[in-house]
Amino acid sequence: MEPVYRLVGADADGEDRAVEAPLRPTDLDGFIGQERVREQLDLVLRAARARGATADHVLFSGAPGLGKTTLSMIIAAEMGAPFRITSGPAIQHAGDLAAILSSLTEGEVLFLDEIHRMSRSAEEMLYMAMEDFRVDVVVGTGLGATPIPLELPPFTLVGATTRAGLLVPPLRDRFGFTAHMEFYAPAELERVIHRSARLLDVAIEPEGAAEIAGRSRGTPRIANRLLRRVRDYAQVKADGVVTREVASAALAVYEIDGRGLDRLDRAVLGALLSLFGGGPVGLSTLAVAVGEERETVEEVAEPFLVREGLLARTPRGRVATPAAWAHLGLAPLPQGDPGTGQQGPFGAGSGGHVASPPPRQRPPRR
């Protein structure tokens, strides 16, 4: 599936990576949010420094854009160790992993993003490297193949995954510290936005920061992205100061509503309510109705709609909740109502169920 760019998408693009670098905090004290994770990680790092040893292997899980990469860099900075970054999709063979591990220096922090997407052969090699700091490199093929043990210097592996359920237990059990990253509260996102605004030299009022935070879907990366777009709008169509009115007008231009839903989210809800009376409806049918791929609806739009309580996944199909009707300003249809021609987002006559045709009558006997 081709990636779908969305202003409220949590995945990082090229611009995000370039802008995020100077915005990242360099120590735990400067990291905003994730209080419990920061407290636990601080104990792990302090204890390791007191022993003069490398830190335990760390696993971060959670949605994209919550700070897994930033915390990994902070671990290296707190330990005073070099930092190296790679990703699971880039390691397709055991030899790829062996080349990386053999070049590590003592105490180095290796960040492995999307660790669940690593190949199985490389994953099995990683077991021994994490536990015994050694790997067996096979030289030759067939009957002449010879395993050569290679000792590794002590290092810290920091794994990150957005799908912790795909990690096999043997790999997950080898991490000394695991942490799940939670979505941010609006107050925490406001602090993130104020900090980023200072670093980007953006004049912003508290009400403007609150408006952006409320539409950021609980994700700092999205909050920083929306801040940059609102800054552009303020510079072009206002006096450069981000107020509540400016932020609201700017996000309206980019079709981001008050709950953070964009065009795709509202299209899915609109089709579910207006064309199918709130469901249940199959995923493939819903995808055809909005003109998107099935995977796009399931993996891009649905997770946030479910988390916001606007959509439910049931064995019979997708069903809209009362909150979805209220959000789009529509009245829920009575149960069993065959169709009322209610005006919906897709035009007149698009709301409600389609009436069943009358039963076919048999001709009289002669």
Automatic annotation (TrEMBL):
Region spans: Small ATPAse domain (RuvB-S): 185-255
InterPro entries: AAA+_ATPase (IPR003593), AAA_lid_4 (IPR041445), DNA_helicase_Holl-junc_RuvB (IPR004605), P-loop_NTPase (IPR027417), RuvB-like_N (IPR008824), RuvB_wg_C (IPR008823), WH-like_DNA-bd_sf (IPR036388), WH_DNA-bd_sf (IPR036390)
Keyword Flavoprotein in record: no
Catalysis: reaction(s): ATP + H2O = ADP + phosphate + H(+)
Enzyme class: hydrolase
Domain spans labelled AAA+ ATPase: 54-182
Coiled coil, from the record: none
Keyword Cell membrane among record annotations: no
Residues reported in the UniProt entry to bind ATP: L23, R24, G65, K68, T69, T70, E131, D132, F133, R174, Y184, R221
Subcellular location as annotated: Cytoplasm
Enzyme Commission no: 3.6.4.-
Disordered as annotated region, ranges: 330-366
Main location, first listed in the record: cytoplasm
Composition-biased stretches (Gly residues): 338-352
Swiss-Prot/TrEMBL keywords: ATP-binding, Cytoplasm, DNA damage, DNA recombination, DNA repair, DNA-binding, Helicase, Hydrolase, Nucleotide-binding
Binding residue positions for DNA: R294, R313, R318
Gene3D superfamilies: 1.10.8.60, P-loop containing nucleotide triphosphate hydrolases, Winged helix-like DNA-binding domain superfamily/Winged helix DNA-binding domain
Residues binding Mg(2+), per UniProt: T69
GO terms, molecular function: DNA helicase activity; hydrolase activity
Pro residues bias: start-end ranges: 356-366
Domain-related comment: Has 3 domains, the large (RuvB-L) and small ATPase (RuvB-S) domains and the C-terminal head (RuvB-H) domain. The head domain binds DNA, while the ATPase domains jointly bind ATP, ADP or are empty depending on the state of the subunit in the translocation cycle. During a single DNA translocation step the structure of each domain remains the same, but their relative positions change.
Stated family: Belongs to the RuvB family.
Physiological role: The RuvA-RuvB-RuvC complex processes Holliday junction (HJ) DNA during genetic recombination and DNA repair, while the RuvA-RuvB complex plays an important role in the rescue of blocked DNA replication forks via replication fork reversal (RFR). RuvA specifically binds to HJ cruciform DNA, conferring on it an open structure. The RuvB hexamer acts as an ATP-dependent pump, pulling dsDNA into and through the RuvAB complex. RuvB forms 2 homohexamers on either side of HJ DNA bound by 1 or 2 RuvA tetramers; 4 subunits per hexamer contact DNA at a time.
Protein name: Holliday junction branch migration complex subunit RuvB
Organism per entry: Streptomyces viridosporus T7A
Gene expressing this chain: ruvB
